[in-house]
Every structure is written in structure tokens, then in C-alpha cells.
Structure prediction request, 172 residues.
Amino acid sequence: MASSSCYNSPCAACKFLRRKCLPGCIFAPHFPPEEPHKFANVHKIFGASNVTKLLNEVLPHQREDAVNTLAYEAEARVRDPVYGCVSAITFLQRQVERLEKELDSAKADLMRYASNDMSQPLIGTHHHEGENIGSTLHNMAMSRRMGYDHHGGGSYFPWNDQNNSGGGGGNI
Prediction:
């Protein structure tokens, strides 16, 4: 949970809404003053009133997850107003399908190797649409990097990386 003292600096929500941040502020634990963009995006997409209602209805131990979900969807909607996080989900589903096909081909290659059937080539038979091992490893690293780290580091969205050859906002 983010720590924000209402006495030192108002939380990002109260600062954005230009109101006094009171000690019982429901936004303070989730929208620290160091992350003004987080509340700005959530407010732009969902509205402060709706977020307040939602946080009041959710059990206190579930609020952090609710805020992270709202922030993720809000950022996705800001980047891609039509599809939101669906484009990231679709990108990951396509990557899983591509990697499953590659794994199936690799298993078939191993079976041929194990049965000493060397009449069929082993190298280059399991790459989908001319994809090479380097780009496969890059895609695997990208999916790890985009992970679900809500506390910094990698990007939430695979299409933010200039070197990434797959996916894209709105390419559903």
C-alpha cells in the first residue's frame, strides 16, 4: 500500500480535485502525491465520484487491488480509447498461441531425434512465419518485462517498446 501523509502533502486525488486532504481520505493510501498521473487517468476515465463510491463499497483489504485494476484500465483506455486493456490481452493470447505452436514443433523435433529419424531436418522447422529464435527470446523477455509489476520497472503495455515486433494498440 502506498504511503501518503495527509499532513505533509495532500494525496494526488485531493491535489487534483483542489480540496483539503483530510486524515480519513479514502484516496490517500492509494494515490500518493508522487503519482499524480495515476489519479488523473482514473479520474478522466471513471470520475472521482464513481471511484469514491466503488472504494466505499469494496472491503478495505481489496481496495489496493481495485485501485490497481482501475489504474491499469484507465491507462489502457487513455492509450487506446476503443479497446483499452483488451488489446494487451489479445497481444498476450496471440503470443501464447504462437509459443504453443513453437513448443509443439520443438516436441515433434525431439521425438524425431529420440527415434533416430535423422532424415528430416531439425534446425529451423519450428519457427512460425519466419520468426527466428532471437525474436522468440525477445518476445519472451518482453512478456516477462511487461509482467504485472504495478510498482515501477517495466511497461504495462507491450507496444510501448520500440524494438518489439509484435502487437500494437488497436491491432485486434
Observations:
- The chain has two domains: 12-79, 86-160.
- The chain is about 50% helix and 0% strand.
- Confidence is low (pLDDT under 50) at residues 1-7, 148-156, 161-172.
